[in-house]
Amino acid sequence: MKEQDFEKLEGIKVSFGKTALSPKSMYCDKCDIKMIKSAIEMPVSDYIKVKLNIFKCPKCREQIIGLDEAKKLDEALIINRLLTKENALSFKRHLSFDGNNYIFRLPSELTKGKHKEVKITPIESNEALIEW
Amino acid sequence: MKINIIGISPQTQKKIYEKHSILAEEIILILRDDKPIFKKAGGHQIIAIGLYNRYLTIFFKYNSKRKQAIITTAYPSDKKQIKYYKRAVK
């Protein structure tokens, strides 16, 4: 979307209800009827499934989850990416050595904004999780 | 405009994570802790731009009768959107 197009759009003020992230009910947009609460096991990959409390339309079977519930799916997606890292989006960087430590640069595509430190969690002998 | 319900389909969430590494947690942090800019687009669409670690542009389909917003897509904001956001929040 072009900057000018975005600027031309009407600005609105939005407020959120207290239970917006964990709604107790949902409505199907297509059928305009109340969705039914249900529990499913959603496959994330061949090896990983996640149990989700969903809202399902009794007519068209559309499935929606609240954002708080979506955090469970987040965890499953992260675990799946760690386990299937060969296919995951990744960045390769050359290492420098200062006599004591290996140094590499974090790609700017990932790290927009200012950061002062990173947290490194070893996973195994030559793998680590890096957070910034 | 009041939003009482925010939702996302599991398939959409999986897609935006696979394409852009965007988690629902990140969207929650922007909506809850940042002050995103909201715009009304055509076809009952709302667009939000916000910042938490990085700038994200989030599209919602809004149902005014139910005060319900369903996330349809999200992606890292482009340079023009970031520039607009920075000007707007000054």
Key terms for this structure?
heterodimer; A: 132 residues; alpha+beta; Ubiquitin-like (UB roll); 2 domains; 3-stranded antiparallel beta sheet; two-stranded antiparallel ribbon; 2 helices; 9 strands; extended; B: 90 residues; Nuclear Transport Factor 2, Chain: A; 5-stranded mixed beta sheet; 3 helices; 6 strands; globular
Shape of chain B: globular
Query: Taking Cα atoms only, what radius of gyration of chain B do you get, to the nearest Å?
Result: 13 Å
Number of strands of chain B: 6
Strand elements of chain A, count: 9
Query: Low-confidence parts of chain B, pLDDT < 50 over ≥5 residues?
Result: none
The largest chain-to-chain contact, stated as pair and per-chain residue counts, equals: A-B, 45 and 47 residues
Report the mean per-residue pLDDT of chain B as an integer. Answer: 92
CATH architecture of the largest domain in chain A: Roll
Structure description:
The complex is a heterodimer of chains A (132) and B (90). Chain A is 17% helix and 30% strand. With 132 residues, chain A is of the alpha+beta class. Chain A folds into 2 domains: 21-83, Ubiquitin-like (UB roll), CATH 3.10.20; 96-131, no CATH class. In chain A, strand 4 (49-56) and strand 5 (63-66) form a beta hairpin. Chain A is extended, with a radius of gyration of 21 Å. With 90 residues, chain B is α+β, with helices and mostly antiparallel strands. Chain B has one domain (5-89): Ribonuclease toxin, BrnT, of type II toxin-antitoxin system (Nuclear Transport Factor 2, Chain: A, Roll). Chain B has helices spanning 10-20, 24-33, 79-89, and strands spanning 2-3, 5-8, 37-41, 45-52, 54-63, 68-76. In chain B, strands 2-6-5-4-3 form a 5-stranded mixed beta sheet. In chain B, a hairpin with a 4-residue loop joins strand 5 and strand 6. The longest helix of chain B has 11 residues, at 10-20. At the A-B interface, helix 1, strand 1, strand 2, strand 4 and strand 5 of A face strand 1, strand 2, helix 1, helix 2 and strand 3 of B. Strand 2 (15-16) of chain A pairs parallel with strand 1 (2-3) of chain B, so a sheet runs across the interface.
